[in-house]
Write a structure and sequence with these properties.
Residues 361-442 form the Adenylosuccinate lyase C-terminal domain. The chain has helices spanning 8-11, 16-19, 22-42, 48-56, 65-71, 79-89, 92-95, 104-140, 160-185, 204-215, 229-255, 284-293, 296-305, 322-345, 350-358, 366-377, 383-395, 402-408, 410-413, 418-424, 434-448, and strands spanning 145-150, 153-159, 263-265, 346-348. Strand 1 (145-150) and strand 2 (153-159) form a beta hairpin. The strands form two sheets. It has a two-stranded antiparallel ribbon. Strands 3-4 form a two-stranded antiparallel sheet. The two termini are 28 Å apart. It has 21 helices and four strands. The chain is mainly alpha-helical. The protein is elongated. The protein folds into two domains: 7-353, Fumarase/aspartase (Central domain) (Fumarase C, Chain A, domain 2, Up-down Bundle), CATH 1.20.200.10; 363-425.
Length: 449
Amino acid sequence: MATGGLFDGVLAAGPVAELVSDRAWVQAMLDFEAALAAASAASGVIPAEAATAIEKCCRAEIYDIAALGADAVRIGNPAGPLVRALTARVEPAAAAYVHLGATSQDVIDTAAMLLSARALAALRTDLHVCATRLAQLAEEHAGTATVGRSLLQQALPVTFGLTAAGWLGGVIAALDRIDLVRRERLAVQFGGAVGTLAALRGNGIPVLSELARRLELAEPSLAWHTERSRIAEVAGVLGQTCGAVAKIARDITLLAQTEIAEVREQGPPGSGGSSTMPHKQNPVAAVLAAGSAAQGPGLVADLLAAGGHEHQRAAGAWHAEWRPLTELLRSAGSAVHWLRVCLERLQVDPVRMRDNLESTGGLLVVENVAIELVSVAGGAVGRQEATDVVAACCLRASSGDLAELLAADSTIGKFLNRNRIEELLDPASYLGSAAEFVRRALRDWQSRL
């Protein structure tokens, strides 16, 4: 867990934060330079000895990151000072071959792709653990009836397994998209000053191909200096992931409310407490997952807003991407980390769920009575009439037993007796295809394993 800043333990939690740190950025830029030298040597552009000498100096720990940042103002990016520092460290015979054919944007864009690949891999690991836990909850509680809610009010019965399956669906969708972006859209950037690789005198394409192979990034058809769909897609998948996390975290915080109390986080001693209220037991991991995920949409918007790059190299739009991309990777990583912690701590209370189902005395499932009435009446009672007579009984339910009121109604009582009405008011009798939907979701997840 990152601990470099006051809020990092909360909003920069998990493994991704370190993978997008300043040192990680510098190392990724140096990885580009090392791979460029090796690719150039393999393509016969520079001597192999020069490539070896350059690679030896491509270690972030031997560079002063603060000094690089301070020097970045001279040309407007940190790649220039890094290349200068690298050149100064390389033995004189190899110095002339450092950064050959490349431009600063090649270095930073490729570094951004490398960091994205590494961060998405770590994020995916945590997300996969979340999916596994959600599948377990879905299977375990496939038959656990609970209140379904719409517009924050009780609606119809569902199962907690169906709820967990719905959460799982969002996580699976995020995993699928992450895999697609990692496989197809994270590409090396190598185009030189204006995307022509003119400085390599006809050797540009072989070097590009070898560079992509060595860095394990996709080889683009051409330079994408001002065609920023790759950055947009990274932003999109991170935003989608934050959305999936936010949905689950928000549901859990609502279900953990004192008045509902259907789930709770059982963390280590001291977790979820309050600075002033000794009785509090907050679902703190869900809260932090929601807080981290909430950073995502604004950062996605920043990256999309920066997508209009002019001509062959942009003046400012490219620079506007660096910080929000880093922050978005960090925030999404933190969100998924806290979701994993939350789900590992999560405890489900089926008894409380049943109590909440019964708290309205059967009102939750009166639709079942109306549907049965239409079915058994054989056309004597239409759907609207059935709905109206049942609704009229519901309005009087506070002053009496609902099943008794329904059975006493002249229209309903003609076709349904008290015992049948009580059966229809059992929430477990009105779960529709919930169990099959859970099975389908679990098969979908198993097919990916």
